[in-house]
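Quick start: read one record
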Amino acid sequence: MAQSAAEIRVDTPANRMATRATFFVTGMAMGLWAALVPFAQQRTGAEANQLGLLLLCLGAGSLLSMSGSGPLIGRLGCRAVIIISVTLYILMLPLLATLNDLWLLGGSLFLFGMGIGLTDVAMNVQGSIIEQAADKPLMSGFHCLWSVGGIAGAGGGALLFSVGLTPLTSTFCAMAATAVVLGISYRSLLTVGNQEKKGEKRGGKPDFYLILIALMTLLCFMAEGAVIDWSGVFMHQQRGMDVARAGWGFAVFSLMMSLMRLTGDAVVQRLGRKRILVMGGLLGTIGYSMVVLLPGWVFSLVGFALIGIGAANIVPVLITLAGQQKSMPVNMSVALVTAVGYLGVLGGPALLGWVAHYASLYVAFSFLIVGFLIITLGALKLRYSR
């Protein structure tokens, strides 16, 4: 059984670097998948609704692994869960790059989603434990490395495709990079999986504020998931970009996210979490409005950039607020919010695929404008501590 974080020191430079490394390799895997989506659609000949079902397989696998992640992380600790789950999703990458059968690809995406989902909860629990021990904002910096990984995966993958390398070769590069990064940071991953909070209700139930945080996380992740899974298809089919360069929509989004998260902890400390959520929701609304309403790929890239700026610090702030809630232990509250959130990032794009099939991607993206408006209003209702 894993120790409590109160029993050992968890806030060391090495712990922080290991957390950032885990965020990086997970973002890289998702970014590479974003660049592979147009190729998968070409290989399988999948229409929008069929591609949506494939993405639903990814979401279903993630949600299944997340459903029991809180107790598992509390029992085994973050390190063991991260190593197992990262190994699972990197082994799936070559299959995602080569399979042309819809059923086999769907099964591989299911397992890929299981690995991504479990890793995401574990690394956010680890980040929350370290942040509370440090008693200062750190979560934006951790999530920054996910965005940097997204750039490396999507932008790097698109660049490799442009110079003639195959999707399969790109996945082997990602696997090697992941093995090196985790090999270096392994010893500094936390063996603990929980942090005692003063006034915490053991085994409690989520209160109104935790449920609202989970809903806002779902909406933001849904908007991010739409960029991950549909920006490439949108830029290729609706804006006329070559398939080899269609991943730049997600790359621009990730670049702006990285830049905003790079200084996000300092900005959060200066402006406060409430203002960050309100401003982020408004910028996301403007960004998706540009993508939907303005013609030409240049305006779409600017729109995706604004979405990245707006969404950059929303989820890190919400994860921090979840970890501070006293209605549940940190491994349970963070697991709940992350699981509900990833229903948006992994299951939401599948729903958008059906909307796109029966209407259009323009209509699907319009729902995300409403989502960011809800985030803005929800930010006015939350409770904020220091």
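The chain has a mean pLDDT of 84.
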